[in-house]
Design a protein that fits this description.
single chain; 339 residues; alpha/beta; TIM Barrel; eight-stranded parallel β-barrel; 9 helices; 8 strands; 14% strand
Length: 339
């Protein structure tokens, strides 16, 4: 269900001035709380590197529009897998490959949200959307019940998107064509705080397009450390030449390797098929290609987050499921040798 965003912005403004009590305020504080030397955060980062191999799941309105980036606002009725999405099958496929965590695109460039956000109606519970199930909650239950950790992807509306009438990125309640950059930032901070509060199992927020053009590193750190519980956060810089540079807890490389001797806690994102979102006729890499990729990535102080795109029925293609199972079989002797 939605709220009056201008009322929300007013609350946030008062919070910054110290007028609203902390218990009434979304976690958007900008005062710096340095976590340098924090054993708990450093321990979480060390644990993150031990995860080694995760599943990225790009599934959102883009799947139904046949696009990687949706232009304008899509009709919520288009998000229609034709029944309940079998997220248990996603988790089983990840487990078969030896993956230990997964990240779902909770909100991508379409602006469409896979949970019932209190800040917008542009989500799976929209009156015109036939799905009307909390897909984020389904995803979390399926993966955590199988012993895997879970994170959520959130796309930021970066200044680099340019024309606010084209790639919206934010829901209509904070349409960039009518809302200032500061209002947009506050809206996004409020939604991320909502996700962390609503889903306590989430250990990791994957931020696409978050970099100093949106807010300085100190401000981003202060926000994430002000949340009710500690979560790791990453940043996928807008500028391709700067991807992988430290800014957040986890440095992200996209379709590129970290250099040899990398010292940042890293995550390298690649797709199993030819695109992030499902595309008819795409074919997966071979299991050997995936294992070779994983070996290089892990050797450079980084996890491999390998994307698998569900189709319009919310299902992984059979060929991709078979490759994932073969990856697991290839990795089993290697895992035993490391014990």
């Amino acid at each position: 269900m939605g709220v009056n965003w201008f009322s929300m912005a007013a609350v946030l403004t008062m919070a910054a001035a110290g007028i609203v009590r902390a218990a009434e305020t979304p976690a958007v504080a900008t005062d710096r709380r340095s976590d340098e030397g924090s054993n708990s955060v450093e321990a979480m980062k060390d644990e993150f590197l031990r995860l080694k191999f995760g599943m990225f799941i790009h599934f959102n309105m883009e799947t139904y529009k046949g696009a990687q980036w949706v232009v304008g606002y899509a009709d919520p009725a288009e998000f229609n897998p034709g029944g309940a999405v079998d997220t248990d099958a996603w988790a089983e496929a990840a487990k078969s490959a030896g993956m230990t965590y997964a990240v779902l695109t909770a909100k991508h460039v379409s602006g469409f949200c896979l949970w019932d956000s209190k800040y917008t109606t542009f989500d799976v519970f929209h009156p015109d959307c036939p799905y009307k199930q909390d897909l984020v909650a389904q995803f979390i239950k399926s993966f955590t019940s199988r012993g895997m950790k879970v994170g959520l992807y959130y796309a930021w509306r970066h200044p680099g998107f340019g024309d606010p009438g084209k790639y919206k990125v934010l829901p209509p309640e904070c349409d960039p064509a009518t809302h200032s950059p500061e209002e947009q930032k506050k809206f996004q901070l409020a939604q991320i705080a909502e996700l962390v509060e609503k889903y306590p199992e989430v250990f990791y927020i994957w931020n696409d397009g978050l970099d100093p053009q949106i807010m300085p590193e100190d401000e981003a750190r202060a926000f994430f450390r002000s949340l009710p519980r500690k979560v790791l956060y990453s940043s996928n810089w807008w500028n391709w030449g700067k991807k992988g540079l430290p800014y957040a807890d986890i440095a992200v490389k996209e379709l590129r390797h970290f250099p040899e001797g990398n010292t940042a806690v890293g995550e390298t994102c690649w797709y199993l098929e030819q695109k992030w979102f499902w595309s008819d006729g795409s074919r997966p890499k071979t299991a050997k290609q995936v294992v070779d990729l994983l070996t290089v990535v892990n050797g450079r102080r980084s996890n491999l987050l390998l994307n698998v795109g569900p189709n319009k029925r919310g299902r992984f293609e059979d060929a991709s499921v078979q490759v994932l199972a073969e990856v697991g079989r290839l990795l089993t002797p290697q895992a035993n040798a490391e014990k």
